[in-house]
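Record type: ASSEMBLY
Status: queued
Input:
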Amino acid sequence: MTVSIDGQRLWSSLMSMAEIGPTANGGSCRLALTGEDAAGRRLLLDWCEALGCTLRVDRVGNLFIRRAGRRDDLAPVATGSHLDTQPKGGRFDGILGVLAGLEVFRALEDQGLVTERPLELVVWTNEEGSRFAPAMVASGTYAGVFSVDDTLSRRDADGVTLGEALEACGYAGELPVGEPRLDGFFELHIEQGPVLEDAGESIGVVTGVQGMRWFDVTLEGQSAHAGPTPMRLRHDALAAAAHLIDRLQAHALADAGGDTKVTFGCLEIDSPSRNVIPGEVRLTVDLRHVVEAELDALQALFERELAAAGETFGVAVSQQRIWASPVVAFAPECIEAVEAGARAQGVPYRRMMSGAGHDAVYVSRVAPTSMIFVPCRDGISHNEAEYASPEHCALGAQVLCDALLGRANRPA
Amino acid sequence: MTVSIDGQRLWSSLMSMAEIGPTANGGSCRLALTGEDAAGRRLLLDWCEALGCTLRVDRVGNLFIRRAGRRDDLAPVATGSHLDTQPKGGRFDGILGVLAGLEVFRALEDQGLVTERPLELVVWTNEEGSRFAPAMVASGTYAGVFSVDDTLSRRDADGVTLGEALEACGYAGELPVGEPRLDGFFELHIEQGPVLEDAGESIGVVTGVQGMRWFDVTLEGQSAHAGPTPMRLRHDALAAAAHLIDRLQAHALADAGGDTKVTFGCLEIDSPSRNVIPGEVRLTVDLRHVVEAELDALQALFERELAAAGETFGVAVSQQRIWASPVVAFAPECIEAVEAGARAQGVPYRRMMSGAGHDAVYVSRVAPTSMIFVPCRDGISHNEAEYASPEHCALGAQVLCDALLGRANRPA
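Status: finished
Output:
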């Protein structure tokens, strides 16, 4: 079964969706389960109903939009992503994955084709985490990571629970969370990084997600006047922090394969003053690697370097690991289906690990899964300036289409 | 002429003065030219008038309290410091220098002695700079660094000028600023650093003040998601800043003589977030050295290291020098007078440069000057916990007494 998607129609869907919750600088604001998010869902459902699809909504508001197959007794092959955005989000993050699924349905409809297994287009609730923490809470609930009750009782900044928001916007469904079981899941997404663009490649065949660990670090020295305090008698918390940062940066940059990532996103000096030696510094550490054992080693190195920096500068150090996300490997047969699709397009592509979290990461716990990345300009996302070209969106949707059909039509 | 000061009486004066403007945790709050500062001055003047001293007040409120000599046609030998404090200041910073001068007058009176040259006890207005910026504005005006009109028109946070505050508290004097010319000036002060305490020494013979240069630095990279952005494609402003800090720290620590000081007191990341690579960092740099040419070399090194850090991390860097204070050398004959006094006490002492600014630094432009330091606990000052022991205060006052008498009694 060969089906060509219509890149122009896909682009037009993307631009129409962006008209809901538009922001001043060309982005979108559809926070989860707000009126804007509901309007975005409504637009999608209108389009899908026109194709004869059927809708089920689960108890945490995930939408399952089914296109019937020949064998509706078999588990569906699914695709999808999310329609909610950051407060100043772009037009592509999540949305491309949903509307590419719609485009596959439309292309099948154009050609009057029916797959063996049913297809399911999924819209996951509250992926961004901007309104209700944490991110990806509803796909995580689907995968059994969070309980339904916990998820429904998550509150936004105004104290509104996710359950109340679902009722208010009309998406509190009846389908038990975890249904339907999926035969497989493919998610198309913008890369949200610069790797494909930098390499001149059009498709990322995503083989998994790098592991990640977050730490809060405190360095306590002694604040003192810069003038009268000799270097050797100082307890400079910032000097110790800078030493730690510099050592770990050098370590990560020395990894020629580029699989080691260290980021210090926040650094705060207590009561800073130009001529006072910093007495206390708090900073955050984000460590990532594509191999779990290497991530263990990276954490051990961080702990050693932190202790050494404290000793060198006479500063008391402490750290707390506040989050850990293991390395995830996607299903080989799904990865191969995506790779075959990329190869068929004759464009440069690469196998790569995702650096960011996605709904597919949770879904991969309960169904064979892979992802498809397309380049985004300058690697920018979560930003009104986020952009993916029509050509790359179309290429991604075509690879998605091939992967979906291949899996949906394989022998039972 | 040998005169012994009374350490117990000096301590008692210090504790009495601390009762004016007391703070919750045992410190003092006498912001310049407030009711508290005026009350402190009044207490001192009551004590001095009981000794038969005469008062002149100059146009910026500096007090000149004279004890007559045999040769009142000769320029006076002076001592003094300041009575104003930080908002949560201690009992010693400035105050010790004033009340030690009082104690010298009292000891002379006890023994019925008169010096050849007159002695002058000086209280400089607004040393701390907490109420009116900059610090040491009135001794700077005395030395010709600031004009009288400029100084009188400095405003506090409420818009009150220094001139108005002088009128309000009754210390707007008639004496032309710059008078009287001094034959010499000695200032006793707590060290405000940890060097003497650390070395177990009781007296610092201050030979001058280290030079100082202040810079504002901006590093502009590119913020991006920590997860999907490879290390080699990052433009991490914090990584560049940390590299700069670490390099300069290492350089300063490698100076075995301890004359090189580098301090990064403030560092701020623009829109920090745990999993976002810092796009912009602003930091402050404070460079100090006791030799002007070495300070030039240190600045050049800083500029090279900043450029190199920018290049290494793909970050645009810029810096602005916002303040420079040259190395100051005190008068050899005054330094020797202090050193002789320290030696006579038979206590461990050292020659040292001051790391902080003092009224004596400005006065040294127009009169032969030196300073005497005594240890303060843990090097802490500008803090309610500031403390110097009665023994060290007495030792410092005795060395001051010897230096003053030696100079006041030398042949004309």
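Annotation: Chain A has a mean pLDDT of 97.
Annotation: Chain A touches chain B through 60 residues (CB under 8 Å).
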